[in-house]
């Protein structure tokens, strides 16, 4: 891992937290940078809502999103344990570990064999978990785990700082907005996938590209797509659905 690459990512993370940033886009970038820097196959991010329940807010791939949702629905898995204990959870070989049988089966179905969950934590306050998945069994070396935790810590500090500034209740308004926006974005992905006859991954990529090119919030563009007031056209040939 090049030192300059690592520095660039931390500068990007810190810079995004300045001003009126798009918190949902920031969290998606966090999952993508984890994949790039740490050499894992995928990453997902869970945060608490106002009822102190975990919710999925970002994932680097569609299969990761589905696995994270399954984990939340069954209330079983490494990421749930990580959040509850506030401690990292690493399982280098899910089938051999014989923990969380339903989660392990679901992970195998989407091709994941190892998982490393890192707490989104500041002192005693835990607001979520950053989850790293790999298709091959094996440990993630200590240096990469430290970098992953550092990225989680930077994101946590920024989110909690904004919570304090905005005088939120249990959670900052931005955190709750991110949770609400995720539902809207899922709806927009479905609309685009059906309208353009593409898979949901391509639909999401199109949505993010449109938001970036026109300097708009992801949730704002998603609302326009759902309302039918915005038409997005792929600028590359997408993968046909199915």
From TrEMBL:
Keyword Kinase: yes
Keyword Kinase attributed: yes
Name used for this protein in its record: GAF and ANTAR domain-containing protein
InterPro entries, per the entry: ANTAR (IPR005561), CheY-like_superfamily (IPR011006), GAF (IPR003018), GAF-like_dom_sf (IPR029016), GAF_ANTAR (IPR012074), WH-like_DNA-bd_sf (IPR036388)
Keywords, comma-separated and alphabetical: Kinase, Transcription, Transcription regulation, Transferase
Domain ANTAR: 165-226
Organism for this UniProt entry: Micromonospora reichwaldensis
Pfam families in alphabetical order: ANTAR (PF03861), GAF_2 (PF13185)
């Amino acid at each position: 891992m090049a030192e300059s690459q690592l520095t660039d990512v931390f500068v990007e993370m810190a810079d995004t937290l300045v001003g009126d940033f798009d918190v949902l886009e920031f969290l998606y970038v966090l999952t993508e940078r984890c994949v790039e820097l740490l050499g894992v196959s995928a990453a997902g991010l869970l945060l608490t809502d106002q009822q102190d329940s975990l919710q999925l807010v970002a994932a680097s791939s569609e299969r990761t999103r589905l696995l994270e949702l399954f984990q939340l629905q069954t209330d079983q898995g490494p990421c749930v344990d990580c959040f509850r204990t506030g401690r990292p959870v690493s399982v280098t070989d899910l089938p051999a570990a014989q923990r969380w049988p339903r989660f392990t089966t679901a992970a195998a179905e989407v091709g994941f064999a190892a998982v490393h969950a890192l707490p989104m934590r500041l002192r005693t306050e835990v607001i979520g978990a950053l989850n790293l998945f790999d298709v091959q069994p094996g440990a993630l070396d200590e240096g990469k785990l430290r970098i992953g935790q550092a990225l989680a810590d930077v994101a946590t500090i920024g989110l909690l700082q904004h919570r304090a500034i905005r005088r939120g209740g249990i959670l900052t308004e931005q955190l709750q907005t991110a949770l609400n926006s995720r539902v809207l974005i899922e709806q927009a992905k479905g609309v685009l996938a059906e309208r353009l006859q593409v898979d949901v991954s391509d639909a999401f990529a199109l949505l993010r590209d449109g938001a970036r090119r026109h300097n708009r919030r992801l949730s704002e563009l998603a609302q326009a797509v759902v309302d039918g007031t915005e038409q997005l056209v792929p600028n590359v040939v997408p993968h046909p659905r199915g």
